[in-house]
Design goal:
This protein is of the alpha+beta class and about 150 residues long. It has helices at about 10-35, 45-65, 125-140; strands at about 1-10, 70-75, 75-80, 85, 90-95, 100-105, 115, 120, 140-145, 150. It is elongated, with a radius of gyration of 19 Å.
Length: about 150
């Protein structure tokens, strides 16, 4: 089976990123004004922490923008963006949601689904997800329906 699917990042990833912005602004202004958690330690530590946190959020945002745009299934391997995973290295396929489904690919030896292996299928979602499930069953990959726990 050789098939290519267009994919996109789940909306929940963007929501998580946007919800972090008030947190960083509170830490930063707490450090600048000298009131709050970091005022008793040192305003410099609060400022450095908020700059580090802002840098991490910017890096996450950039990583989300360069998210892979297609997934390809070729025989017994799956290619998501530039990452190639063989069926024997996949622990399970996790499907979250009912009306709008998100797919997470959990590699063996990992506790969480990497963010680059968590995506939503564009197009005829029901048919394409059914094809991916059939591929997983043929290759002996466990299929789990439930919440996807992923690493940012």
């Amino acid at each position: 089976m050789n098939k290519t699917y267009d994919i996109k990042l789940p909306a929940s990833s963007w929501v998580a990123l946007i919800l972090q912005l008030p947190v960083i602004s509170m830490i930063f202004f707490s450090a600048l004004t000298g009131r709050g958690l970091y005022s008793s330690i040192s305003p410099m530590i609060g400022t450095l922490f908020s700059l580090f946190y802002a840098g991490a959020l910017i890096a996450l945002g950039i990583r989300m923008v360069i998210q892979p745009r297609c997934m390809e299934i070729i025989g017994e391997k799956m290619i998501v963006g530039r990452k190639e995973i063989t069926a024997v290295h996949i622990d399970k396929l996790v499907i979250q949601g009912y009306l709008s489904q998100i797919i997470g690919i959990k590699p063996k030896g990992k506790r969480l689904v990497p963010s680059l292996l968590c995506f939503k299928i564009k197009g005829n979602e029901e048919e394409y997800i059914e094809e991916i499930i059939q591929w997983a069953k043929r290759n002996g990959i466990e299929i789990k329906y439930g919440r996807i726990f992923r690493w940012i």
